[in-house]
């Protein structure tokens, strides 16, 4: 059985539904903190069990009978995140399962973007675990480009700190890659970067959005502290503001600029371009 953790989240749910279509409900299990939110999966025949990375006993039950476990990285940072990942990895290993972990392009102990050292540390845990694993070096979600556009669609100004090119990658493409890793043997250990086919900075994002909407959107570079102050003034928590600034700092270093053909080879088709992703989302 293939177990998908985080099956109530965007990536986890996309993986679970694709697995349903690929191998049928008898081969799919969902590990979620709130089983009530996964009733639709249960109604389709998926085994849904409560599992929390902070509760090793719950994971032992959720991972029972697993041959492979998708460990979706948590939405917190720091040592707490690494320990939660460690608990999930150890539970999967105890179940005799292979771990498929959702890491990230730019995973680096020295990165200024907080999730990146956590991914690097988790990959070290995997290497030392004695458990068979695949660590998916996922590209930066294209949905983040849409988020960064934010009010620019209304104001005509995409105001943000200095940035660098990013190989934006669609959730759906990464979900398909995860399914390939969970159902096949083509990926082992730390994968190449699984990215879109081009790297685009925010000036490029603004230009694409201008073309798609027919409205002029210009890129405006603001100082880091000015941007942080604006976020805090709009009620964004301090840790979130610092995390966003770390993302821009890492992108300026080129941490997310790598473009690799691995994802296209895995999918058997070109990854969805940022332009097409934005076209679809902006039409909603």
UniProtKB/TrEMBL annotation:
Provide the coiled-coil residue spans: none
- What domain of life? Bacteria
Name the InterPro entries on file: NAD(P)-bd_dom, NAD(P)-bd_dom_sf, NmrA-type_oxidoreductase
Output the CDD domains linked to this UniProt entry.
Answer: TMR_SDR_a
Instruction: Please give the Gene3D superfamilies that the UniProt record associates with this protein.
Output: NAD(P)-binding Rossmann-like Domain, UDP-galactose 4-epimerase, domain 1
Q: Where is the NAD(P)-binding domain?
A: 6-183
Give TM regions.
none
Record-given protein name: SDR family oxidoreductase
């Amino acid at each position: 059985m293939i177990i998908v953790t985080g099956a109530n989240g965007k990536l986890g749910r996309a993986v679970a539904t694709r697995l349903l279509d690929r191998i049928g409900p008898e081969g799919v299990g969902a590990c979620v903190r709130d089983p009530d939110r996964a009733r639709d999966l249960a109604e389709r025949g998926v085994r849904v069990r409560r599992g929390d990375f902070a509760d090793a006993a719950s994971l032992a039950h959720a991972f029972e009978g697993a041959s492979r476990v998708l460990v979706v990285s948590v939405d917190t940072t720091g040592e707490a995140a690494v320990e939660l990942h460690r608990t999930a990895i150890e539970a999967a290993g105890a179940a005799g399962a292979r771990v498929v972990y959702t890491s990230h392009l730019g995973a680096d102990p020295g990165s200024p973007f907080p999730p990146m050292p956590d991914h690097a540390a988790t990959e070290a845990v995997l290497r030392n675990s004695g458990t068979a694993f695949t660590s998916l070096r996922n590209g930066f979600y294209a949905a983040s480009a849409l988020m960064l556009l934010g009010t620019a669609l209304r104001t005509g100004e995409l105001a943000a700190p200095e940035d660098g090119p990013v190989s934006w990658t669609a959730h759906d493409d990464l979900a398909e890659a995860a399914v390939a890793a969970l159902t096949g043997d083509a990926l082992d250990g730390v994968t190449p970067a699984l990215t879109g086919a081009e790297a685009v900075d925010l000036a490029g994002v603004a230009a694409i959005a201008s073309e798609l909407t027919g409205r002029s959107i210009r890129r405006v570079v603001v100082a880091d502290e000015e941007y942080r102050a604006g976020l805090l003034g709009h009620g964004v928590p301090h840790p979130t503001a610092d995390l966003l600034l770390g993302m821009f700092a890492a992108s300026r270093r080129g941490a997310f600029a790598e473009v690799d053909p691995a994802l296209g080879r895995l999918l058997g088709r070109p990854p969805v371009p940022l332009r097409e992703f934005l076209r679809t989302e902006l039409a909603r």
